Amino acid sequence: MNHPERGGAAGYNGVEYYQVVQSGSYPMSTPDPRDEARALLDRYWTGRGMPVDPVEIARTLGVQVLRGDLPPDVAGVLMKRAGHDPRIVVAAGDSENRRRFTVAHELGHFVYRGAMLETDSDQYEYVDERSRLARAGTDPVEVFANQFAAELLMPEDVIRPVAKQMSAAVLADRFGVSQEAMSYRLHNLKLTRFALRA
Ligand SMILES: [Zn+2]
Hints:
Elements: H1 15-23, H2 33-44, H3 54-60, E1 64-68, E2 74-80, E3 87-91, H4 96-115, E4 124-129, H5 140-153, H6 156-159, H7 168-175, H8 179-188
Parallel strand pairs: 1-3
Antiparallel strand pairs: 2-3, 2-4
The structure holds zinc ion.
């Protein structure tokens, strides 16, 4: 579902949000990560099939995506420096599918900021350690970023009809994610064919 009253995904160019801030006419509420991801898919990925390319979507939103040499325990970073476009840096040594999830997660941070109208700051930085990505956590911003990434790369309406006909490995390949991320997604959607061991 889109949020036309506050620009939805269309507002990430900053201009519409600025206008909304000026009007100050609606109550602030925590954005829904699934709605935000679906709004982007509806706008930028309709009819294009799987896998979704989070790098292309990020660039469309004005976010550069680069590979870099990050500390071993860091998978990705979203950073904005004064006077520069925001950029996502992902660990160059990670597999393509892991990098794709990391880009989607960092894009989740960017989208959250836009939805919360945190566009006033010209500098910010999010550093994501590997241990936090894709897992359930308690930090609401990280939970948002992970749920956003899962919906962006593994949209529920696409995965649900085919989930029980294919193995997690085949699904992971089709959606361009790691088998671990796919297994976790299937578990969260209660679509696993077999019960997972703890
Ligand atoms: Zn994060």
